[in-house]
Amino acid sequence: MTVAAASALTPGRRVAGRHAAIVGGSLGGLAAAHALEKTGWSVDVYERSPTELRNKGSGLGFVHVPSWERLTQRPMMRRQQRASRAQGSFYYGDLWGYLYDGLAQNENVKVHLGKTITELQGTVEAPIINKTPYDLVVLVDGGFSALRHHVLGADIKPEYAGYVVWRGGVPASKLSPELQSNLRYLEGVYKSDVLKMAKDNGDDLWTFGTFVATPESDVEKYWNKDKDGQSRHGSSQKNSVVPDWFLSHMKQHFSNVPHLVPLMEQIVQKGELTPHPQYEFGNIDQVHKGRVLLLGDAAHMASPRTAVGAHTAILDALALQEAMAPLLQTSAEAFNDKKKNAQLIDRALRWYSRDGVSHAQQLYARTREVSQEFVPEGKILSPEAIYAEEQQASY
Question: Which phi and psi (to 5°) does residue 144 adopt?
């Protein structure tokens, strides 16, 4: 056994000179915290929400449970059994709780709620967050990241994809048994999905999404980019912005699909419906600069139709963990040497970035391919204008 191996670090041992900040405490941010903590880092996570995210968000259609368990090294349970897609789609709040609870008792990770970080002080080589110098800053602050320009410059921004996903949900308890027994995954002219979501508390919900080509000039009518842009493709305005044309649109294009229009009517009356304008991002040539790293939506925004948005963030975190794993084999002499320690971190970041850029570009290409299904060639017509013309013609 060599001296280096004999004095190698263990996952529970911290190293001076390995203190990381993560900006954004959603799924990707907490996943990154798991990855870094297990490779010898102490971590501060800064999340803008003042409260825990256990009771927020919608459903995720795809979750690769073994990947989440590999990252956290603990079983994922749902309703007293190992979680699986067979139980129904996954609730965002439950997944957030799974990641958070795996960190909550860890003295090497601190999650700071109610901390909005919009400035990076110092330099990318020696970043400072909240007046604290860090050896690494991981930006996981969403597709409209306020700090990404430190890595990519100010001119590289997400582009509008040409369509809006209207997402809704209604508790199963508010629907008739007959309606529920006939719901299933559905597709129509404009593409619509219906999924049953199983929350860990025992509640079942029916969730829905429909993809509607929409000019960007219409988006501002029901989506505030400054207010809602930090969240993932989301809107904080909910049912107050359900437009008059929506149900008319559903009846016109999906009346041939059994039970779909009645579900839409129930969602509008008894549930929630929110617009999610789709923006695309990921055609980039780097994911880190100095000691600042992009992860999750800050590096790539995927169409929900790909079903891999959150999954890719988990893959990013696993890749980060793999890149940093060799640091656990650092000899005592090496990690007490600041220069040597810095070289090891920089090598890990370069290793992570190689595949990180490739993954971002591949996901961007797939998202562009998917988007072409929803956006017609030529001018995109306003659903609201079409509805107004139809109403006027009916008089």
Answer: -105, 45
What stretch of H or E contains 228?
helix 225-228
> Tens of pLDDT along 45-88?
999 999 999 988 888 888 999 999 999 999 999 999 999 988 98
pLDDT in tens, 271-288: 988 888 999 999 999 999
> Residue 60 CA to chain centroid, in angstroms?
10
Interatomic CA distance for residues 266 and 148, integer angstroms: 40
Instruction: Name 65's Cβ contacts closer than 8 Å, sequence gap at least 6.
Output: 76, 82, 83, 84
Residues 91 and 200 sit within 8 Å (Cβ to Cβ) = yes
Backbone dihedral angles phi then psi of residue 9, each to the nearest 5 degrees: -75, 160
Q: How far is CA 75 from CA 46, 83, 90, 250, 380, in A?
A: 26, 9, 15, 41, 47
Cβ pair 249, 391 in contact under 8 A: no
290: helix, strand or coil: coil
pTM of the model: 0.89
Written as six digits, the tokens of 371 are 């988007």
Q: Kindly give the pairing relationship between strand 42-47 and strand 109-113.
A: parallel
